[in-house]
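Hey, weird one. I pasted the Transport permease protein sequence into the form twice and got a warning about non-standard characters only the second time. First submission, copied straight from the form history:
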Amino acid sequence: MNYRGVLSIYQFEMARTFRTIGQSIAAPVLLTVLYFIVFGSALGNQIANIDGIAYGAYIVPGLMMLTVLSESVSNAAFGIYFPRFTGTIYEVLSAPISFVEIILGYVGAAASKSIMVGLIILLTSSFFVDINIVHPFYMLGFLILTAISFSLLGFIIGVWANGFQQLQNIPLLIIMPLSFLGGSFYSIKMLPPFWQKVSLINPVVYLISGFRWSFYGSADLNIEISLIMISLFLIACLAILYWIFKTGYRLKS
Protein backbone atom coordinates (compact mmCIF):
# COMPACT_ATOMS: atom_id res chain seq x y z
CA MET A 1 0.00 0.00 0.00
CA ASN A 2 1.39 3.40 -1.03
CA TYR A 3 0.30 5.28 2.08
CA ARG A 4 2.21 8.40 1.09
CA GLY A 5 0.39 8.58 -2.24
CA VAL A 6 -3.02 8.07 -0.63
CA LEU A 7 -2.23 10.66 2.02
CA SER A 8 -1.05 13.19 -0.58
CA ILE A 9 -4.33 12.97 -2.53
CA TYR A 10 -6.34 13.06 0.69
CA GLN A 11 -4.50 16.09 2.06
CA PHE A 12 -4.77 17.95 -1.25
CA GLU A 13 -8.53 17.41 -1.38
CA MET A 14 -9.01 18.36 2.27
CA ALA A 15 -6.88 21.48 1.81
CA ARG A 16 -9.15 22.52 -1.07
CA THR A 17 -12.11 22.20 1.28
CA PHE A 18 -10.62 24.50 3.87
CA ARG A 19 -9.57 27.02 1.20
CA THR A 20 -13.24 27.27 0.23
CA ILE A 21 -14.71 26.71 3.67
CA GLY A 22 -17.65 29.04 3.02
CA GLN A 23 -18.81 27.01 0.04
CA SER A 24 -17.75 23.59 1.30
CA ILE A 25 -18.99 23.67 4.88
CA ALA A 26 -20.78 26.89 5.82
CA ALA A 27 -23.19 26.91 2.84
CA PRO A 28 -24.63 23.38 3.30
CA VAL A 29 -24.90 23.88 7.06
CA LEU A 30 -26.69 27.21 6.61
CA LEU A 31 -29.02 25.71 4.00
CA THR A 32 -29.91 22.83 6.31
CA VAL A 33 -30.54 25.18 9.22
CA LEU A 34 -32.92 27.14 6.98
CA TYR A 35 -34.70 23.88 6.08
CA PHE A 36 -34.89 23.09 9.75
CA ILE A 37 -36.33 26.48 10.67
CA VAL A 38 -38.80 26.62 7.77
CA PHE A 39 -40.02 23.02 7.83
CA GLY A 40 -39.75 22.69 11.60
CA SER A 41 -41.70 25.87 12.18
CA ALA A 42 -44.23 25.53 9.36
CA LEU A 43 -45.00 21.83 9.63
CA GLY A 44 -44.10 21.48 13.29
CA ASN A 45 -47.11 23.59 14.20
CA GLN A 46 -49.35 21.25 12.22
CA ILE A 47 -47.75 17.93 13.18
CA ALA A 48 -47.34 17.49 16.92
CA ASN A 49 -45.26 14.32 16.69
CA ILE A 50 -44.58 11.23 14.58
CA ASP A 51 -44.26 7.86 16.34
CA GLY A 52 -44.12 9.74 19.61
CA ILE A 53 -41.19 11.91 18.46
CA ALA A 54 -41.48 15.69 18.29
CA TYR A 55 -41.56 16.74 14.63
CA GLY A 56 -38.55 19.04 14.95
CA ALA A 57 -36.43 16.18 16.28
CA TYR A 58 -37.95 13.70 13.82
CA ILE A 59 -36.59 15.53 10.76
CA VAL A 60 -33.00 15.84 12.05
CA PRO A 61 -31.84 12.43 10.67
CA GLY A 62 -33.53 13.22 7.36
CA LEU A 63 -31.82 16.59 7.13
CA MET A 64 -28.45 15.04 7.94
CA MET A 65 -28.93 12.32 5.34
CA LEU A 66 -30.15 14.84 2.75
CA THR A 67 -26.96 16.85 3.15
CA VAL A 68 -24.59 13.89 3.41
CA LEU A 69 -25.93 12.36 0.19
CA SER A 70 -25.66 15.54 -1.87
CA GLU A 71 -22.30 16.62 -0.39
CA SER A 72 -20.74 13.17 -0.83
CA VAL A 73 -21.72 13.04 -4.49
CA SER A 74 -20.69 16.64 -5.23
CA ASN A 75 -17.37 16.50 -3.38
CA ALA A 76 -16.21 13.27 -4.98
CA ALA A 77 -17.49 14.18 -8.45
CA PHE A 78 -15.71 17.53 -8.50
CA GLY A 79 -12.59 16.04 -6.88
CA ILE A 80 -11.93 13.66 -9.77
CA TYR A 81 -13.45 15.78 -12.54
CA PHE A 82 -11.21 18.81 -11.95
CA PRO A 83 -7.91 16.97 -12.63
CA ARG A 84 -9.56 15.47 -15.73
CA PHE A 85 -10.58 18.96 -16.83
CA THR A 86 -7.08 20.40 -16.31
CA GLY A 87 -5.26 17.31 -17.61
CA THR A 88 -3.41 16.67 -14.35
CA ILE A 89 -5.19 13.32 -14.05
CA TYR A 90 -2.41 11.83 -16.22
CA GLU A 91 0.13 12.70 -13.54
CA VAL A 92 -1.96 10.79 -11.01
CA LEU A 93 -2.43 7.81 -13.33
CA SER A 94 1.29 7.66 -14.19
CA ALA A 95 2.35 7.84 -10.53
CA PRO A 96 3.31 4.60 -8.73
CA ILE A 97 -0.10 4.31 -7.13
CA SER A 98 -2.82 1.74 -7.78
CA PHE A 99 -6.43 2.48 -8.68
CA VAL A 100 -7.49 1.31 -5.21
CA GLU A 101 -5.17 3.88 -3.64
CA ILE A 102 -6.45 6.63 -5.97
CA ILE A 103 -10.03 5.83 -4.96
CA LEU A 104 -9.05 5.73 -1.29
CA GLY A 105 -7.54 9.20 -1.54
CA TYR A 106 -10.36 10.91 -3.41
CA VAL A 107 -13.30 9.03 -1.88
CA GLY A 108 -11.79 9.15 1.61
CA ALA A 109 -11.53 12.94 1.42
CA ALA A 110 -15.04 13.37 -0.01
CA ALA A 111 -16.54 11.10 2.65
CA SER A 112 -14.61 12.89 5.41
CA LYS A 113 -15.98 16.26 4.30
CA SER A 114 -19.61 15.09 4.17
CA ILE A 115 -19.33 13.31 7.55
CA MET A 116 -17.90 16.51 9.01
CA VAL A 117 -20.80 18.54 7.62
CA GLY A 118 -23.31 15.95 8.86
CA LEU A 119 -21.93 16.09 12.39
CA ILE A 120 -21.95 19.90 12.35
CA ILE A 121 -25.63 19.77 11.34
CA LEU A 122 -26.31 17.38 14.20
CA LEU A 123 -24.55 19.73 16.62
CA THR A 124 -26.43 22.74 15.24
CA SER A 125 -29.78 20.93 15.47
CA SER A 126 -29.15 20.20 19.14
CA PHE A 127 -29.52 23.94 19.79
CA PHE A 128 -33.08 23.82 18.42
CA VAL A 129 -34.43 20.48 19.66
CA ASP A 130 -33.63 17.78 22.18
CA ILE A 131 -31.89 14.87 20.47
CA ASN A 132 -31.34 11.55 22.18
CA ILE A 133 -29.49 9.03 20.01
CA VAL A 134 -30.57 5.53 21.02
CA HIS A 135 -27.96 3.67 18.97
CA PRO A 136 -24.94 6.00 18.57
CA PHE A 137 -22.62 3.35 17.09
CA TYR A 138 -25.21 2.38 14.49
CA MET A 139 -25.70 6.09 13.77
CA LEU A 140 -21.99 6.58 13.12
CA GLY A 141 -21.83 3.35 11.13
CA PHE A 142 -24.74 4.37 8.92
CA LEU A 143 -23.29 7.84 8.46
CA ILE A 144 -19.87 6.54 7.43
CA LEU A 145 -21.26 3.77 5.20
CA THR A 146 -23.61 6.18 3.42
CA ALA A 147 -20.91 8.83 2.98
CA ILE A 148 -18.50 6.29 1.46
CA SER A 149 -21.15 4.73 -0.81
CA PHE A 150 -22.33 8.04 -2.24
CA SER A 151 -18.78 9.35 -2.54
CA LEU A 152 -18.09 6.31 -4.71
CA LEU A 153 -21.14 7.24 -6.78
CA GLY A 154 -19.84 10.82 -7.02
CA PHE A 155 -16.46 9.52 -8.17
CA ILE A 156 -18.19 7.55 -10.93
CA ILE A 157 -20.13 10.65 -11.98
CA GLY A 158 -16.91 12.69 -12.00
CA VAL A 159 -15.32 10.18 -14.35
CA TRP A 160 -18.40 9.98 -16.57
CA ALA A 161 -19.15 13.73 -16.84
CA ASN A 162 -17.99 15.60 -19.93
CA GLY A 163 -18.75 19.06 -18.60
CA PHE A 164 -19.70 21.02 -15.51
CA GLN A 165 -23.38 20.83 -16.46
CA GLN A 166 -23.33 17.04 -16.52
CA LEU A 167 -21.44 17.16 -13.25
CA GLN A 168 -24.33 18.98 -11.60
CA ASN A 169 -27.24 17.25 -13.34
CA ILE A 170 -27.33 13.99 -11.36
CA PRO A 171 -27.03 15.61 -7.89
CA LEU A 172 -29.65 18.23 -8.76
CA LEU A 173 -32.05 16.19 -10.88
CA ILE A 174 -31.81 12.77 -9.23
CA ILE A 175 -30.17 12.77 -5.79
CA MET A 176 -31.95 15.83 -4.41
CA PRO A 177 -35.51 14.80 -5.52
CA LEU A 178 -34.97 11.24 -4.28
CA SER A 179 -33.82 12.62 -0.92
CA PHE A 180 -36.84 14.92 -0.60
CA LEU A 181 -39.21 12.07 -1.53
CA GLY A 182 -37.34 9.58 0.64
CA GLY A 183 -38.94 10.63 3.91
CA SER A 184 -36.55 13.37 4.97
CA PHE A 185 -39.42 15.45 6.31
CA TYR A 186 -42.13 12.85 6.89
CA SER A 187 -42.85 9.21 7.54
CA ILE A 188 -43.90 7.22 4.48
CA LYS A 189 -46.59 5.69 6.71
CA MET A 190 -48.35 9.05 6.43
CA LEU A 191 -48.81 8.52 2.69
CA PRO A 192 -51.78 6.76 1.05
CA PRO A 193 -51.16 3.00 0.56
CA PHE A 194 -50.45 3.39 -3.16
CA TRP A 195 -47.76 6.01 -2.63
CA GLN A 196 -46.26 4.01 0.22
CA LYS A 197 -45.64 1.20 -2.27
CA VAL A 198 -44.26 3.63 -4.83
CA SER A 199 -41.90 5.07 -2.21
CA LEU A 200 -40.34 1.65 -1.69
CA ILE A 201 -38.83 1.95 -5.18
CA ASN A 202 -36.80 4.88 -3.93
CA PRO A 203 -33.51 3.54 -2.46
CA VAL A 204 -33.05 6.66 -0.32
CA VAL A 205 -36.13 5.65 1.73
CA TYR A 206 -34.17 2.70 3.13
CA LEU A 207 -31.19 4.90 4.04
CA ILE A 208 -33.22 7.54 5.85
CA SER A 209 -35.36 4.92 7.59
CA GLY A 210 -32.30 3.05 8.85
CA PHE A 211 -30.57 6.24 9.91
CA ARG A 212 -33.69 7.40 11.76
CA TRP A 213 -33.87 4.04 13.54
CA SER A 214 -30.38 4.62 14.92
CA PHE A 215 -31.64 7.86 16.48
CA TYR A 216 -35.01 6.84 17.89
CA GLY A 217 -35.18 3.04 17.75
CA SER A 218 -38.18 3.08 15.40
CA ALA A 219 -38.40 3.39 11.65
CA ASP A 220 -40.67 2.88 8.67
CA LEU A 221 -38.74 -0.17 7.48
CA ASN A 222 -36.79 -3.03 8.95
CA ILE A 223 -33.22 -2.06 9.88
CA GLU A 224 -31.78 -5.23 8.32
CA ILE A 225 -33.33 -4.33 4.97
CA SER A 226 -31.80 -0.85 5.20
CA LEU A 227 -28.34 -2.29 5.88
CA ILE A 228 -28.68 -4.77 3.02
CA MET A 229 -29.71 -2.01 0.60
CA ILE A 230 -26.80 0.30 1.43
CA SER A 231 -24.37 -2.64 1.30
CA LEU A 232 -25.65 -3.68 -2.15
CA PHE A 233 -25.32 -0.09 -3.34
CA LEU A 234 -21.73 0.03 -2.08
CA ILE A 235 -20.86 -3.24 -3.85
CA ALA A 236 -22.44 -2.04 -7.10
CA CYS A 237 -20.40 1.18 -7.02
CA LEU A 238 -17.19 -0.75 -6.34
CA ALA A 239 -17.93 -3.07 -9.26
CA ILE A 240 -18.46 -0.13 -11.62
CA LEU A 241 -15.24 1.53 -10.46
CA TYR A 242 -13.32 -1.71 -10.98
CA TRP A 243 -14.59 -1.79 -14.56
CA ILE A 244 -13.71 1.89 -15.10
CA PHE A 245 -10.09 1.44 -14.05
CA LYS A 246 -9.76 -1.88 -15.84
CA THR A 247 -10.93 -0.39 -19.14
CA GLY A 248 -9.62 3.15 -18.61
CA TYR A 249 -13.07 4.51 -19.44
CA ARG A 250 -12.77 8.31 -19.88
CA LEU A 251 -9.57 8.33 -17.84
CA LYS A 252 -7.06 7.39 -20.50
CA SER A 253 -8.78 8.92 -23.51
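That's the output from the first submission. The warning seems to come from a hidden character in my clipboard, not from the data itself. The longest strand covers residues 49-50.
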